[in-house]
Amino acid sequence: MLKIAWSDCYCHPLPANHRFPMEKYELLPEQLLYEGTISTSNFFDPGLPTEAMVLRTHESAYWEKLRDQKLSRSEIRRTGFPLSRQLVDREMTIVHGTTLCARYALTHGVSMNIAGGTHHAFTNRGEGFCLLNDMAVAAHFLLDQQLAGKILIVDLDVHQGNGTAQIFRNDARVFTFSMHGARNYPMQKEISDLDIGLPDGADDHFYLKILEVNLKNLLHEVEPDFIFFQSGVDILATDKLGRLAISRDGCRQRDKMVLQLSKENNIPLVASMGGGYSTNIKDIVEAHANTFRLAQEIYF
């Protein structure tokens, strides 16, 4: 069964003029339930992780300031979110969701988080709508519990996974692969194990050809026994922040490629949804929904 992390706190309200589309976290599960792709039995509410799990990835000084809501104004501004207790709980729940998804993926082959993909969170700071790095916390959990020995992070959000790259820059057990807009945020890139910067206006054919070659090479050379997939849909041509020219079908083919190759190679995979900032919320929800539809089709 496809197990999906979701909680009411994912829909934590933001000011009406905020550009982060929180409504997708409510609309996406509703759409998947309405069309019959999943049932309520597919969902689980993650709850909160222990502080020890967070501190395995994030520095104590940063975590304590975040927990106690004592970040400076500049630190808060860098995250893009107004800081609150509810926001911290939301970030913690997302982290635990991806960690528990990793356990489910070991049993079922795949598991998914309705939220997550918070790849701009560093060991010592948050930025770009990311406060805690869910994939990094979950990866550390698998490694520490000896449930995985070599992890591949496939980050296909339009923005480089700079926080994830920083966290694992000295850890050979985790290979970070980020394919993103070369001229997009962040302007100052970190160094992943493999970075592919795409030109503005890259289309479906160009994008999918590059991804296929590199992903197949990585599966052969890295030989991962677990994959975390950051499946941001801000690669869409309709995205306000994306600057690429990928169609909804191209985005779907991207997800199919990642999921199909993982299944064929018997590598458990967790997908976190990542970004999406199209003007029409329908474009965001449909592109994300395709990831779940494909998971059901390919694995179950």
TrEMBL record:
Residues 18-290 form the Histone deacetylase domain. GO terms for biological process: epigenetic regulation of gene expression. Keywords: Hydrolase. InterPro entries: HDAC_classIV, HDACs, His_deacetylse_dom, His_deacetylse_dom_sf, Ureohydrolase_dom_sf. GO terms for molecular function: histone deacetylase activity; hydrolase activity. Belongs to the histone deacetylase family. This is Deacetylase. It comes from Fulvivirga imtechensis AK7. The lineage of its organism: Bacteria, Pseudomonadati, Bacteroidota, Cytophagia, Cytophagales.
